[in-house]
Amino acid sequence: MTGAAQALQAPADVPGDAPAVTPPGATPPPPTPDERRRLRTVRRFGTTGSLLMAVGALGCGATPAPAYNPLLGTRVLGLWGRMPTVSLTLAYLGMGMLVLAWLWLGRLAWPARVRLSVRQLTRILVMWMAPLAVAPPLFSTDVYGYLSQAEVVSRGFDPYIYGAAQALGLSDPLVASIPTIWRTTPSPYGPGFLTFGRLITGIAGDDIVLGIYLHRVLALAALGLVIWAVPHLARRAGVEPIAALWLAISPLVLFHLVSGIHNDAIMLGVVLAGMEIGMRRSWVLGALLIGLGASGKIPAVVALGFLAAHVAHERGGGFARLVRYGAGVSVLGLGTVAAVSVGSGLGFGWIQALAVPNLLRSWLSVTTDLGVLGGWLGGLLGLGDHTEAVLDLTRAAGLGVAALVCVLLVFMVLNGRLHAVAGMGYGFGAVFLAGPVLHPWYLLWAVVPLAASVRDPKIRGFAVAVCAIVALLVPPTGADFSFRTYQLPMAITAAALLALVPLAAVRGRVPRTPETERSGARPDAPAT
């Protein structure tokens, strides 16, 4: 008898306080009084962690340049800026608490043993988002780049030719707040996103703080699309909606899309909404929405192939239908990108600007690491420094491999061997993992669709581990530690010691691992 059969035949009164197993798709039973108490503990533990991160952001967050930082000089809020190590400690302590709370919450949101409703889970996630949504940005200064590039557009310059420093001047508050490497580079973002940015700049004017919060409102609205789309897509793929939503809104989302305000939230929300609408109502509308997302970040076009494969499979399959619907979604999606490019007045300069992110050597990128290693070996062998040439070779090879993987995945969807949303997730994973640059939040392009479509517990467990570990890798400052490298180990050590206090306070009061998993049995659903 398989693990799944044993789980489904288990009696409702599982020994101890462990929840009974819930068949996928069934309405989860209401939590017991003991489970409700444990759920309250997790909710408060995570909210406390989020509040600590918000307080720490006042001193170690990605605030504007010191000369333009409105917090400096204020009586209470400015105090944290004079205690950067203490602020960093609080931020790290909050990060650890929030990751732990999310993992504990997963014990009540894992497939086949869900004990929450979508409304309960959404309420908890919103509570954890709220403090980060009002605090200064953490983990990244990219929002100042968004504001500066939108200001370049507002002043009539071509953002794909002129960098922020050239168009605005080095003394501009926005230019002074972004890393030096990005001050003179053209914008790497598509015309759709820059059009939204221009609207924000028109409202905020010279008010940097208002501009930051308007960008965050836009990111939160896009996350609302994610929260709406993921449960619906999960039902189509046979995945428990609550389990899908829990994995989709991971600490990576809270840290980098809510607090860090990365524009990946906008594109991801629009693409997922496009897939859901394309499957539910009209593939034409879905393709248009995906094209709108691609007008901000061009890798979103990958989703068009999987929408076409889904429609072709639903209508009988076959290579001819794939070509027909592939051509249809391509015309609509790429046509939307072209229409936005022309309608915005920004043109097609974004095509050349796609290479701008390659200026940064990302240690998470496999192809970049291989290129750097190849260049180092060449120098070691006395062949000279050919790192740039080797990088061009490895990066091109990586994109070629990613394209081949995407084609194979599309045919798997066409033949009914893979769900379209799962194929899209794996496709995005191949594109970003083999791409020249990989930031931690890029992993969400793969994790969120897979959360809504993959049932294999091993794959889901791997995704959980990736989200929990990678979320703790990026320092919350969003800047380097030149001349103050001592702060990082000091803050991490202090946070680890302080964490003993809240851990002791909740000992024995968090959700428990079900007896079926402690004994080695686990639901054995087929992979998609």
UniProtKB/TrEMBL annotation:
It is found in: Membrane. It is a multi-pass membrane protein. Residues 1-36 are annotated as: Disordered. Residues 10-20 have a biased composition (Low complexity). The chain crosses the membrane at residues 45-65, 85-105, 125-147, 208-230, 242-262, 282-308, 329-351, 363-384, 396-414, 426-447, 459-476, 488-506. GO terms for molecular function: glycosyltransferase activity. Residues 21-32 have a biased composition (Pro residues). Keywords: Glycosyltransferase, Membrane, Transferase, Transmembrane, Transmembrane helix. Belongs to the MptA/B family. NCBIfam families: MptB. This is Polyprenol phosphomannose-dependent alpha 1,6 mannosyltransferase MptB. The lineage of its organism: Bacteria, Bacillati, Actinomycetota, Actinomycetes, Pseudonocardiales. The gene is mptB.
